[in-house]
Amino acid sequence: MKDLKNGVLNKNMRITFITSGFGLSGGTKAIFELANNLTKRGHEVFVICSLTPFIFANKWFNPFNILTKLLRLSKESKGCRTPVEWFGVRAKLLCVPSLDEKYIPDADIILATWWETAYFVKNYSGSKGKKFYFIQDYEIWMGNREKVENSYKLGLINIVNSNWLKNILQKEAKAEIEAVILHAPDHQQFFPEKTEREKTRIRILMSYRDEQWKGTKEGIETFKIIKRKYPNAKLVMFGKKADNLNFYGLENEVEYHFSPVKGDLRRIYNSCDIFLFSSLEEGFGMPPMEAMACGIPVVATNVGALPEYATDGETVLLSLPGDVEAMAKNIIELIENKSKRDLIMAKALKRIRNFTWEGATGELEKIFKKYI
């Protein structure tokens, strides 16, 4: 990076992402997309996670916390292993014993990607790189609020994935934000594809998460309203494997796909008629982007960055979080008005093609170069 060639600073950089794990999630997917595209641009990129739990959520001397951390260890280590089966990572993945500095390679750039990792990055020496913080959510839902908000004010260069997040961090945490870089779908993976759809029933697709704020219960209650009016409607869901999947009374009626990856997920999107995104809160909200890229009309709540990449009534039908009746009304409108469904689908597909990981990576690269 520091070699001069023809009077110009060499563009290739060593870049390190410090993560909380490699498990399947939208946030991890975004990190991998950026890491892959930075690698394609000629940079040497490491994505690192720790095999041992973090320590900042509570005090170590609390016996209950020690037990909790030990119980979490096996789960967290499962989320930090290579290779990653659900994503084709081109960057270098490292599972290190801990996030102690001795395990972290020297670099030009280093990024925290979770509030607890920000404290580690803050304390690393300058040899680990210029310090950034890639923030994808207001993470008070998973940690002590004071410590979470302080992580945004450690002196790292803060980059966020949406304007709503920028606004809330500035208001609630008094944080300084360097830049907003919106996520994107992978257009090589998500695109319209001809499939044999059932002509006698409407297939409604949802993603499944067991966290209350993901709105799975509200989404299923919405589908129940649809089912009463259209008995042949079919609910299709995809998500991670879990010991106790809760379908809120529809256990025998859901077509469920466990952790679909790559082309499988695209085929699921394309096999359905409407995508329902019923989340109550979101850091960003990537599944609607993927559905739009596959040419599937979206009914969603106006959470996260959705209003920033989709327009209500034009490329998506939005409602307030938790408003089951409004979501059902929007779905019924699309079922009964095929011309509107087709128009929204066409406009959404055109709109979402403006968002690419190549473009997002280019913006991120410019920011890095600004500080080196």
Summarize the structure.
With 372 residues, this protein is of the alpha/beta class. It has helices spanning 26-40, 63-78, 115-123, 145-151, 163-172, 216-229, 263-270, 287-293, 306-309, 324-336, 338-352, 357-370; strands spanning 4-5, 8-9, 14-18, 44-50, 92-96, 109-112, 130-135, 157-160, 179-180, 203-208, 234-239, 254-258, 274-277, 298-301, 317-319.
Provide the spatial order of strands within the biggest beta sheet.
Answer: 5-4-3-6-7-8-9
Radius of gyration: 21 Å
The percentage helix is: 25-40%
The backbone outline, from C-alpha atoms, is elongated
**Percentage of residues in strands:** 15-25%
Overall mean pLDDT stands at 90
Uncertain stretches of 5 or more adjacent residues: 1-9, 57-62
What is the first-to-last residue Cα distance?
9 Å
Strand element count: 15
Largest sheet: 7 strands, parallel
Commentary on this structure:
The chain is elongated and about 60 Å long. The protein is of the alpha/beta class and 372 residues long. Mean pLDDT is 90; it is low at 1-9 and 57-62. The chain has 12 helices and 15 strands. It has helices at residues 26-40, 63-78, 115-123, 145-151, 163-172, 216-229, 263-270, 287-293, 306-309, 324-336, 338-352, 357-370, and strands spanning 4-5, 8-9, 14-18, 44-50, 92-96, 109-112, 130-135, 157-160, 179-180, 203-208, 234-239, 254-258, 274-277, 298-301, 317-319. Strands 5-4-3-6-7-8-9 form a 7-stranded parallel beta sheet, with helices on both faces. The protein has a 6-stranded parallel beta sheet with strand order 12-11-10-13-14-15, sandwiched between helices. A two-stranded antiparallel sheet has the order 1-2. The chain is 35% helix and 17% strand.
